[in-house]
Amino acid sequence: MSHVFHRNLRQSYPTAVKGDGAYLIDSEGKSYLDACGGAAVSCLGHSHPAVIKAIQQQVSKLAYAHSSFFTSEPMEQLADWLIERAPAGLESVYFVSGGSEAVEAALKLARQYYLEKGQPQRRHIIARRQSYHGNTLGALATGGNAWRRQPFEPLLMEVSHVSPCYAYRGQQEGESAEAYGQRLVAELEQEILRLGSDNVMAFVAEPVVGATLGAVTAVPGYFKGIRALCDRYGILLLLDEVMCGMGRTGYLFAAEYEGISPDLLCIAKGLGAGYQPIGATLVSGEIVNTLRNGSGFFQHGHTYIGHATACAAALAVMKTIEKDELLTQVQRLGHGLHERLQAQFDQHPHIGNIRGRGLFWGLELVADRDSKAAFDPNLKVHAKIKQAAMQAGLMCYPMGGTLDGRQGDHILLAPPFILTDSQLDELVDKLGQACQQVLAR
Ligand SMILES: Cc1ncc(COP(=O)(O)O)c(C=O)c1O
């Protein structure tokens, strides 16, 4: 029996032994097309020579130096690279080892900023239902997925949750997309006023909602309205691009598409592309300067901040995305994937909605297309599709609880940026087989 505390203690997992481009290969020799990057991580596939070389070179020179003693070349270079391309106003990068750590750092930084700015009463966080911001306690409290939160509720700090921007279910008949977006902005304003606008610290949102909703993009004007509202009340806008950032949507930063700049921006996953664990919080000049002119330091930290090997890997990932013009490729492949998904599933009686951007797509499963009724959660349709897809040699990322943490199912797709057109065909074909096997029953 394994001594590993696996995610599911009743399940046995195939042993992954090799990565080969867009495929993972197990110890039996079976290969799986990785159409979800694990959880939107492996954006360059699994054996990219440039990243492997950068890691080997860095580790043979300097693997790690603790950030309370030293800075390092890869950490400085990666910060320069990111800030040169980041939305306007972001000026510093706080490196961590993953997405939850990036969100925790951003929340604590928001709090410390207001303390040093002489507004200690600002402590409320507002986020959205059906969001996911990580599993550490602060990030979990911020997230709005009821199922993930429920067992730990007594341990979670108080956070307000407003509606997500989820047109498939939230936009009313006869309401334009723009009017829907503005209705949601007004809902946020109501919540700000209820809490007292001087007491609110930050609004937190994923520009494209990933794991818990399945690649849900916002309607036009929504994020511009949110930015303006935060500015009006002096509230920080914290965008969580842990899943949707680093090229996944066809833009290096998902916020670019929305034409806005946040005050704090979290990234991870595609930053290290799975070659190294790394995340980061990008911080506005206003926040950094307030701390610089105040206490002079951020009262936070982890052992592996700015790990030299992780930064070298991430820098190689970023340079590869740019050198190989992968953002353009993501946009092109994204159109191709969307077309193929439409062709395969548009008339499917149990696919209610296909949505996404770039190489980040979601399919929402329904028992009935007209009423949009969800499947009985006890059927665990999402889990069955994951299993059927694995049998067919395909990794996709189905999840339940799409509507409210309990009801609803979706499938998330986040394939690598290096996919070929024939692999797009293979992806949709295998997904079709898996859906057929489960949904035809
Ligand atoms: C939007 C978002 N934020 C935060 C996280 C947490 O990241 P990690 O699992 O690296 O801690 C995730 C992970 O799925 C995520 O999708």
Automatic annotation (TrEMBL):
It comes from the Bacteria. Gene3D superfamilies: Aspartate Aminotransferase, domain 1, Type I PLP-dependent aspartate aminotransferase-like (Major domain). Its cofactor is pyridoxal 5'-phosphate. Belongs to the class-III pyridoxal-phosphate-dependent aminotransferase family. It comes from Balneatrix alpica. Pfam families: Aminotran_3. Keywords: Aminotransferase, Pyridoxal phosphate, Transferase. The lineage of its organism: Bacteria, Pseudomonadati, Pseudomonadota, Gammaproteobacteria, Oceanospirillales. One of its GO terms (molecular function) is transaminase activity. The keyword Transferase applies. This is Aspartate aminotransferase family protein. CDD domains: OAT_like. The keyword Transport does not apply. NCBIfam families: PRK07483.1.
